[in-house]
Every structure is written in structure tokens, then in C-alpha cells.
# Entry
Amino acid sequence: MTAVPEDSGPGDRRPETGAPVDGWRRRWSVRTRALGEAARVRTRRFWDGAQPTLRQLWWTEEPVTPVTTVDRRAPEPLAVPAQGQVYVFLVRATYTWSSETARPELFGWYVDYFQQQAAQRLHRLAVRCAVEVPPHRPRDLHAALTAALADDDPPPWTYARGEVTFACEPDVTVHLDERVRKLLQPYWEQRIALECERDLARRRAEYAEERDRRDRQETPSATRAGDVSEPATTAPSANRSEATGPARDAGGMSGEARRARRGSRPDGPVESFTPLEPLLPPPAPRPAPGQRPRPGEPEPPRV
# Structure
């Protein structure tokens, strides 16, 4: 005996699985497969044709050229005690920082980070060199500090943090303490004044020597010119001496005595008197024993 399901009504009847539904799904799957295959073929063709152009447009990175960044810092001077631990020296330093690995935007931060270490390093060297240097000799400390930088701790100083490396080169100058400067000021003022006076005296001596040398050079030339013109000027000088004073001949008789003996000239004025005896010349002075007579004087008779 077989059980037959009861008919529950027209609303409870299920749709029968038939050919229309299966055919719709099958058609869409075939169509989708055909479209995908066509798109795949077209994409492969496009990619094969675009390969040469894309190879030309590919980005190629060139090797990075290192760039050196440089910065100079001049912090506050370092106070270093001098000999006796009473006065100090002022050590001023200019630090030159350079790096090839630091990025420019972080360069200043790294310099601020390493600056204190470089200042402490220089301070230790300066204290060691200034122990035996008097407070009024900054040049000696500068020489000693320069030698210590060259021999004991030569720059550039190297600092590193991670992959970043920095190089530092200090440039050092030494100055006096202000109290020592006030004590040395009167000494240097007097020394400068003395050096100025010495320079002035030396220049005066040089000018005087130059003037004397120029006068000695001019005197021989004037003498030579006078020797050439002497014969022309001898006769007028004799006439002037005859007009101004009584000229005497070899016998010692003056010109007036000779004219009086001869008589007056016809065209001359009458003389007021006529001397009866000729006027004798005054006796020549005798030189002292052992003294040679002057040029132009007659020699005394030898006894």
C-alpha cells in the first residue's frame, strides 16, 4: 500500500525544476568566459606593444654625490687660570664643523650636540698649557696651545652618532685678563712714547747726515767754478785794494809817498802837505817759536 501525499492547496505547490532556468545560467557562464578570454588576449597584446616604451621611461637612480655641509661657531671665551691661580687668560675659539653624511635639516642639531664636547676638549688642553705661563704673557700660552694642538691632539676632531660623522677644526686666540690689561697700560704707554722719541731722533740724524753729504757734494763744484773765474776777478780786487788802502811796493813805499816825491800831477788837485820823509810800513809780527808763518807774510830774518 502506497501513501500518496495529500494536496495541500494551490499555494503550497513548488516550481518544478525545468529547462528554462538551467539554460539561462549556462548562457551567462559561456558568455562571461568568452569576454574574459577576449580581454586577456587584448591585455597581452597591449602589454607586449607597450614594453619598449616603458623600458625607455623606467626611472634609473644615479649614484648619490656626497655634499659637505660646513658651519662655524664662536661660543663664549674659556677662562683658563694663569700661573699663580690669581689671574686668568681668555681663550677664544672658532669651531669649524663639517659633515658629508648629515642631512641639512639636522645639521644644526648635531652641531649643538657635539659643541659642548669640543669645548671641554679644548679647555683641558688650555688648562694644562697655562699652568706655568705668567698672566702677562698671552703670546707664550698661544704658542704652547698651538704646539699641543699640533702634537698631542691634532685636528680635525671626529665625532660620530650612528651613521652620521662630523669633523671639527678649532681656531684659537688668547687674550689678557681685563685686570692685567689695566695694570700694563701705563707701562705700554711709556714704552710707546720712548720708541716714538727714539724713532724721531734717528730720523733727525739721518736727515742731518743727508744734508751734510749734499753740502759736501756741492762745495767741490763751487770751488772748481771759482778757480776758473779767478784770473778775471784778480785785477778788480787789486784796483779795489789800491783805492781803499795804501798800496805798497817791494821797498815798502806807499803810492802817496811816491807821488809826493815825484810831485803832483798837472791835472790833479794840490795836496795839502808834502811829507819830507817816506812813511815806513809797520813792522810785521814775529811768529812764536816753533810756529810757521802764515801764507803771504814775509819770513823773519834768520839770525
